[in-house]
Design a protein that fits this description.
The protein is of the alpha/beta class. The protein has a five-stranded mixed β-sheet, with helices on both faces. Helix 1 packs parallel to helix 7, helix 7 crosses helix 8 and helix 7 runs parallel beside helix 10. It is flat, with a radius of gyration of 21 Å. The N and C termini lie far apart (47 Å).
Length: 279
């Protein structure tokens, strides 16, 4: 990579790094990622941080001169509880109206969802359209990961680097490894989050379950097959060797696709919670 202008490989790496940030970011981490992009995109944007018992008054960020407000929602998996997301839109907008409307009239309201590139839920659009009609707003909408990616990669290269981090200077062969590694690790992170959520107790564990025990629970409850479990153990070994630098072998695309299919199978099966998640 020469100078400050990114070539095609550098841009692809930057996109992969951004995707990984999205997959890893829940809660406040995603809110900060969103705000950093917005600071670069819109000069008038201001992030609102919670303060003591007052909180942020249901406002995660706004552009005062335009009357534009944003509320960020980044659960581990938004598709697991549609009702919670819809209720958050209703409750947050009510709180926004009660405190902020008199300070700066609400003209536009956007619900920023970390969908992890899965797409937004139709119920959310319906609720926002209802709000736009009921309160005579100029516009409402759902902002998802692909929208943030579009905004980010329309910014100058130095701003993109500031968000995604340092870009390595690599050749085509090295890029193919990085691309495959990023794709695999993203799929693995998603599998772990979905699997742990489905078998862990409601209470926050002192220590998270090892993947092996999570897989055993999934097999016992007939959520996945013994063949699926053997595949996960195989993929776990590859993941461990990669992370610890023992090997540079990345799973084939067909194997990553199988991991994604198993993740969807676990998600669709519902929640099988244990009494405890601690080892």
């Amino acid at each position: 990579m020469q100078g400050l202008t990114m070539d095609d490989i550098s841009l692809s790496i930057a996109r992969n790094m951004f995707h990984l940030q999205v997959y890893e970011s829940d809660g406040v981490r995603f809110e900060d990622l969103f705000s950093k992009i917005m600071y670069y995109k819109s000069q008038g944007f201001q992030q609102v941080k919670p303060y003591g018992n007052v909180g942020d008054r249901k406002n995660d960020g706004f552009i005062k001169d335009e009357g534009v407000y944003y509320q960020v929602y980044a659960p581990e998996d938004a598709s697991n509880n549609v009702l919670a997301a819809v209720n958050k839109i209703k409750d947050d907008f009510q709180g926004l109206m009660e405190y902020w409307h008199d300070i700066c009239h609400i003209k536009k309201y956007y619900f920023v969802l970390n969908d992890k590139y899965k797409g937004s839920l139709p119920q959310l659009h319906k609720e926002l359209i209802n709000l736009q009609s009921d309160f005579n707003l100029i516009d409402t909408g759902v902002i998802v990961a692909k929208d943030l990616e579009h905004d980010l990669f329309n910014l100058p290269d130095d701003m993109i680097r500031s968000v995604v981090g340092h870009l390595p200077d690599i050749d085509h062969e090295e890029y193919m490894f990085v691309s495959g590694f990023t794709c695999f690790i993203s799929a693995w992170i998603n599998f772990e989050k979905v699997a742990r959520y489905n078998v862990c107790s409601v209470e926050e564990p002192k220590r998270p379950l090892f993947v092996g025990k999570v897989v055993d629970v999934l097999v016992q409850n007939k959520i996945i097959s013994a063949q699926d479990a053997d595949f996960i153990k195989h993929i776990t070994q590859i993941r461990n060797r990669l992370v610890h630098g023992v090997s540079m072998i990345v799973p084939k695309k067909s194997e990553i696709d199988i991991l994604i299919l198993i993740t969807e199978k676990v998600k669709l099966a519902g929640v099988y919670r244990l009494n405890s998640c601690s080892e």
